[in-house]
Amino acid sequence: MKLNVIENSDKKVNIELAGESETLANLLRKKAWEAGAKQAAFMREHPYLAMPKIIVYGKNPLKLLDNAAQKIIDQAKEFQTEFRRALGK
């Protein structure tokens, strides 16, 4: 994965997720909302040619995205724990 920062200010960040699908962008968008973003969206300018972008508005949007990524990691670890418990490992 390669992140290309298109715009970065203290109220808005726009990042292109090169090599990723809309799945990750949509998950980040959802978790950014949960982290306190005023607005969070993802877009793809062309369904086959363009990379997905995530746009977050709020106070310190980079921190909001970092918090969103941490929420995803925590949720994945929780899933892994429950998955292993279900398998008896």
Could you give a short description of this structure?
The protein is α+β, with helices and mostly antiparallel strands. The chain has helices at 22-34, 61-87; strands at 2-8, 12-18, 39-43, 53-57. The protein is built from two helices and four strands.
* Helix vs. strand class: alpha+beta
Report the portion of residues in β strands.
25-35%
The level of helicity is 40-55%
Q: In angstroms, what is the radius of gyration?
A: 15 Å
Shape: globular
- Note the main sheet: 4 strands, antiparallel
Tally the helices.
Answer: 2
The fourth-level CATH homologous superfamily is RNA polymerase, RBP11-like subunit
The span between the termini is 31 Å
Trace the largest sheet across and list its strands: 1-2-4-3
Mean pLDDT: 92
How many structural units, i.e. domains? 1
Q: Which regions are unreliable across 5 or more consecutive residues at pLDDT < 50?
A: none
What is the total tally of β strands? 4
The CATH topology label is: Gyrase A, domain 2
Order of helices and strands: EEHEEH
In the CATH hierarchy, the architecture is 2-Layer Sandwich
CATH class: Alpha Beta
List keywords for this structure.
2 helices; alpha+beta; 89 residues; 4-stranded antiparallel β-sheet; 45% helix; single chain; Gyrase A, domain 2; 27% strand
Describe the protein.
The chain has one domain: 2-Layer Sandwich (Gyrase A, domain 2). The longest helix is centred in the last third of the chain and has 27 residues, at 61-87. The mean pLDDT is 92. The N and C termini lie far apart (31 Å). The protein is built from two helices and four strands; from the N terminus they run E-E-H-E-E-H. The chain is an alpha+beta fold and 89 residues long. A four-stranded antiparallel sheet has the order 1-2-4-3, with helices on one face.
